[in-house]
Amino acid sequence: MATIPYIIEAINEKTSKILSIGLGGANINNFFSEPPNKHNITVVEIDAAMKEVAQKWFGLEENGRHQVLVDDGVEFLRKLAENEKFDIIFIDACHSKREDNEKVFKNILNR
Description:
The protein is α/β, with parallel strands linked by helices. The chain is built from 5 helices and 4 strands; from the N terminus they run αβαβαβαβα. The protein has a single domain, classed as 3-Layer(aba) Sandwich (Rossmann fold).
């Protein structure tokens, strides 16, 4: 939650495609997919139970602009690097060290 101001600052009216690695309670994702926001957000969550919890308890609703995929975020990023582009990618997963997240991106980008 502490990163929300930074995410909001990075997103502007030209941002159309957002990728989130990790779902949590879906608060960030719901915010960016609801009107008046016009962003398309794809979320990759490794744990199907988290998606169920977010739907049942936090109001997660998928629609044409908001989809949640149950998949490994690292593997999704590897496949993504070959085919699709996003304006912003943010990680809302549970790594405790920033260096862990940096390694994932560096390994993918330096292939």
